Amino acid sequence: MALVTAHDALKYTLRREQSQFSEEAERLATQAAYIAANPPIDGRKVSGDITRLTGA
Q1: Which end of the chain is more exposed for a tag (fewer CB within 10 A), N or C?
Q2: Contacts of residue 39, Cβ cutoff 8 Å, sequence gap at least 6
Q3: Residues 1-56 pLDDT 10s
Q4: Which DSSP symbol is given to 43?
């Protein structure tokens, strides 16, 4: 049975977190591009997408 060292565990955790961070950044960039390409409809100051993202 292979031993797992603290170094191995930390290395795995950091790689996983970096991967998750990258995926989330890509998802947010896609959303931002969509919002930028779809301005608010007439009579609104902000896009409904921005309103949903901000929780307002």
Answers
A1: N
A2: 47
A3: 789 999 999 999 999 999 999 999 999 899 888 877 877 777 776 666 666 666 55
A4: T
pTM reported for the whole predicted model:
0.63
Rounded distance, CA 21 to CA 44, Å? 33
> Which three-class secondary structure state does DSSP give residue 49?
helix
Distance CA 49, CA 36 (A): 10
Dist CA 30 CA 53 (whole Å): 13
CB–CB of 50/36 below 8 Å? no
Name the residue type at position 50: I
Contact 16, 23 (CB under 8 A): no
